[in-house]
Design brief:
CATH class of the largest domain: Alpha Beta
Distance between the termini: 26 Å
Strand order of the largest sheet: 2-1-5-3-4
CATH superfamily of the largest domain: Beta-grasp domain
Number of strands: 7
CATH architecture of the largest domain: Roll
Radius of gyration: 15 Å
Length: 118
């Protein structure tokens, strides 16, 4: 199955791209994705251990299954400061554009949008 992996901040810098398309086995979990990414992108391996993973706008554990055609975000650790705020804002606003969220509010700002017509 194919998945789209989005990379942010340091992860993007290490790999040199903001997005990777990967083919995984049909029963793949987040841990399988982490292992495959580490093998295919060794420059990312040690850093990946500290990153969170989100599938379809929700943080998930390593044992979470990955659905086909999923959008998987690799989210580096962040802490205080304007760079961290900018990363959070860009990440969450990019997720917001792709979701059915009507209202989003955080320490870096608020956003509202109309729900998609179904």
């Amino acid at each position: 199955m194919k998945v789209r992996v989005l990379l942010f901040a340091r992860a993007r810098e290490l790999v040199g791209t903001e997005e990777i398309e990967m083919t995984l086995p049909g029963n793949a979990t987040v841990q399988v994705l982490r292992d495959r990414l580490s093998a295919e992108k060794p420059e990312l391996a040690r850093f990946l251990e500290r990153c969170a993973v989100a599938i379809s706008n929700e943080y998930v554990a390593n044992n979470a299954p990955i659905p086909e055609n999923a959008e998987v975000a690799i989210i580096p650790p962040v802490s205080g400061g304007s760079c961290a705020q900018e990363l959070c804002q860009r990440h969450f606003l990019s997720l917001l554009r792709k979701s059915d969220v009507v209202e989003f509010e955080s320490s870096v700002g608020s956003a509202w949008r109309q729900p998609r017509n179904r």
